[in-house]
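Chapter review: from sequence to fold.
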Amino acid sequence: MVKDNETVIKEFNELINMTSFELEEWLKEEQSENSGWDKGDGSRETVGHESGRKIIQILDKNPDKDPDQYDEDDLQHMRKVVSYCKRHLAQEEKAKQNTDSKSYKSLKNWGHDPLKT
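The token string follows.
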């Protein structure tokens, strides 16, 4: 069953525990580029790194987190972010234990710092 937009917005805002600035700074680091799936478009950027850039746009566009300010593209990406973060947090406890792990770095690319929870 597909989650309603209200639930997606609530979960997104709970899971994304990095600020736009923190995420932007993280994505500039080389280690952020070395985890996750390659987009396969020749750019050598990972899916998660691209997602992080989209998350920054969503956070910057709507800093007050007003549910009425999200458009369909935002909601579609937010749904993807919620799914990814929830799945990986449930499966990968090592993300909280090892900051050198791909799990930790990948979750940060998706806007969730496991050490902040």
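Two observations follow directly from the output. The helical segments are 5-15, 20-28, 47-61, 72-91, 94-97, 102-109. Residues 72-91 form the longest helix (20 residues).
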